[in-house]
Write a structure and sequence with these properties.
CATH class of the largest domain: Alpha Beta
CATH superfamily of the largest domain: Vaccinia Virus protein VP39
Strand content: 25-35%
Helix content: 25-40%
Number of strands: 14
Strand order of the largest sheet: 10-9-8-11-12-14-13
CATH architecture of the largest domain: 3-Layer(aba) Sandwich
Number of helices: 6
Structural class: alpha/beta
CATH topology of the largest domain: Rossmann fold
Shape: elongated
Distance between the termini: 43 Å
Order of helices and strands: HEEEEEEEHEHEHEEHEHEE
């Protein structure tokens, strides 16, 4: 079932000749965007107040964006940037990741050391861990330029070093904890090698595919990381997909 804010766009919108249409909404802000692949944007008809851009999120040379509120913060999200599909799902993930980081701190991870937010997107977990008391440095690593631009806006007051890089190509720094939220394909060997090279005591892994979680857990185990906990979150209701937040320590 579509979100109510998207439903009006679906029912009232007209996109003649389009090969693909993406609708994004900010549930808390009411912001709505439509990204259209195919026709001239002049042919698109949408309800008043809906931003219309091309496949790259541009309209008249300006990048479209929306706002969403999760974990007590407003998040600036550019049209091409990744964000969780549901704000309540993002809330749940933020809470569980924060709890997992706190647990690792109780097990000896240095809260005054470096926390790495790998595959950081627009900075959700970097911001949440700062809010929940991480006092040390934080580095957010993300390869998508639109997302790192957003992260620099969202984390401007949080003393976070935002790095635009694929995790596999990032030069690892000594760290206490790594939080990683990779794509469905998971971390893979190269990213696990980079994470292990930080010397982190703990890793919090957010997985949206059970098979990739199993592969990544085995790769982490080969570097001495023992599985501690896993929490399943049903973000994608009425489907077989779930998010799993797992913690590992060594």
């Amino acid at each position: 079932m579509a979100h109510g804010l998207a439903d009006a766009v679906l029912t009232e919108g007209r996109f003649p000749g389009a090969s693909e249409v993406t609708i994004r909404v900010g549930a808390a802000s009411g912001d709505r965007l439509v990204l259209v692949t195919g026709p001239s944007l002049d042919a698109v008809e949408v309800p008043a107040g809906v931003g219309v851009g091309d496949a790259d999120g541009m309209a008249g040379g300006v990048m479209l964006s929306l706002r969403e509120r999760v974990a007590g913060r407003w998040w600036h999200i550019s049209a091409p940037s990744f964000f969780q599909t549901r704000p309540d799902g993002a809330e749940a993930l933020a809470a569980v990741v924060g709890s997992a980081v706190a647990d690792l701190r109780s097990q000896g991870a240095d809260g005054d050391g470096l926390l790495v937010d790998a595959y950081a997107g627009v900075g959700l977990f970097a911001g949440v861990t700062r809010d929940q008391g991480w006092k040390g440095r934080i580095t957010a690593v993300e390869r998508a330029g639109s997302s790192t631009d957003d992260a620099r806006v969202n984390l401007a007051d949080d003393d976070v070093n935002v790095v635009t890089s694929a995790v596999e190509r990032w030069a690892p720094e000594p760290a206490a904890v790594v939080v990683a939220d990779p794509a469905r394909s998971g971390l893979g060997r190269k990213a696990v090698d980079v994470i292990a090279a930080t010397g982190a005591v703990g890793v919090v892994l957010v997985s949206c595919d059970a098979a990739s979680l199993g592969r990544d857990a085995a790769l982490l185990a080969a570097h001495g990381y023992a599985h501690r906990t896993s929490v399943v979150i049903d973000v994608f209701t009425h489907t077989h997909h779930v998010e799993v937040v797992s913690s590992f320590s060594r």
